[in-house]
Amino acid sequence: MDRHAPPVLGTLNARLDAVIDRALAESRLVGTVVVVARDGEPVYRRAAGLADREHGLPMREDALFRLASLTKPIVSAAALALVERGRLSLHAPLAEVLPEFVPRLPNGAPATVSVHHLLTHTAGFSYGFFEAADGPYHLAGISDGLDMPGRSMAEQLQRIASVPLLFEPGAGWRYSVGTDVLGAVIARVTGQTLPDTIATLVTGPLAMADTAFGVRDRQRLATPYADGVPAGSPPVRMEARTVVPFIEPALAGISFAPDRVFDPASFPSGGGGMVGGADDFLRFLESIRTDRSVISPAMSQALRNNQTGDLLIDTRGPGWGFGYGGSVLLDPAAAATPQSAGTWQWGGAYGHGWFVDPVEKLTVIALTNTAVEGLTGRFGIDVRDAVYGV
């Protein structure tokens, strides 16, 4: 794609259609909704495959998905809104808000963790899916926010604090349950539940009517599937608890409990607990891209700009930093991507990916019901390359 001209719609459509059709034909995906917008205007939109394979229900453009980590930038925006209102500090110790939550360094000394550390995943926390089955998060029974229905936030915080941090806050980067802790901070300072606060500060003002810590319309909720094993086998419908291999065989994999979203006793996971669809998420991303969101232009820029210096973002590799709402592309050549410098992006474990290229004014969202192909498989790379015509 010419970097200074809009995509030729017919060619773009053909390229993306081919990527989607191939993923479905090869049984790498069950269903997907893909939306591409240029300067806020959709130039491609397609629902393909099945929302429920066993019942023959086709995917629809307004399908709802378990958003997993697409929740994170929404919760991050709420935190930044509270900072602007003087209700929250980016750099004050969390002990001022959550005195009962005392994470500790490897030597046992109390650690000073801030909201900035939680937003940037530099606090020293982790996720269980980065560990073997006998790793410390598993031994402590810490939820990744996608499983363990009925777990309370108080219990989750106690279990997180029981495991020493991987490093002193600010000294490294590790994708983590930090956004779940951030959700608890938000609830404490507002005196509301996290769902109510997000509705008040973000989804309500942006008219994201389908996005919530619950399901607004069960008939539109896509059924989740897991990658087939061995590779090339058809995806399998997720059960009450499904573990999906992730990164490498020695690790425990990602534990999913799809019915968690229906259990009101489950803590609202700021890192992965929301449900929503493509149109709402497009509205959110565009509000940040254009500096016309629920936070000021300066905070929108902070959310999408690098906040981690030269720390290695190990889940992305060379050429990437991390902001307050996702990874940030610093060096396209080092990252081996056709995207522009300044592109911000992330995904979700249930099988989603998105990115915003501010130079090309492109916003791309690919939601799927297949984990983890839609997140880390070939599909996301193929969608990206089809958009840029490479």
Poorly predicted runs = none
Radius of gyration: 20 Å
Mean pLDDT: 96
Determine the fraction of residues in helical runs and give it as a percent range: 25-40%
Distance between the termini: 7 Å
Please write the string of helix (H) and strand (E) elements: HEEEEHHHHHHEEEEEHHEEHEEEEHH
Biggest sheet, in brief?
Answer: 8 strands, antiparallel
Present the secondary structure layout.
Layout: H1 9-25, E1 31-38, E2 41-52, E3 57-58, E4 65-66, H2 71-84, H3 115-120, H4 136-139, H5 153-161, H6 178-190, H7 194-203, E5 225-226, E6 236-237, E7 242-244, E8 254-256, E9 275-276, H8 278-289, H9 297-304, E10 320-322, E11 327-329, H10 332-335, E12 344-348, E13 352-357, E14 362-368, E15 370-371, H11 373-376, H12 378-388
Tell me what the structure shows.
α1 runs antiparallel to α12 (378-388) and α2 crosses α7. By secondary structure, the protein is an alpha+beta fold. It has helices at 9-25, 71-84, 115-120, 136-139, 153-161, 178-190, 194-203, 278-289, 297-304, 332-335, 373-376, 378-388, and strands at residues 31-38, 41-52, 57-58, 65-66, 225-226, 236-237, 242-244, 254-256, 275-276, 320-322, 327-329, 344-348, 352-357, 362-368, 370-371. An 8-stranded antiparallel sheet has the order 3-2-1-14-13-12-11-10, with helices on both faces. The protein has a 3-stranded mixed sheet with strand order 6-5-15. The radius of gyration is 20 Å and the shape is globular. The protein starts with 8 loop residues before the first helix and ends with a helix. The model has no long low-confidence stretch (mean pLDDT 96). The chain contains 12 helices and 15 strands.
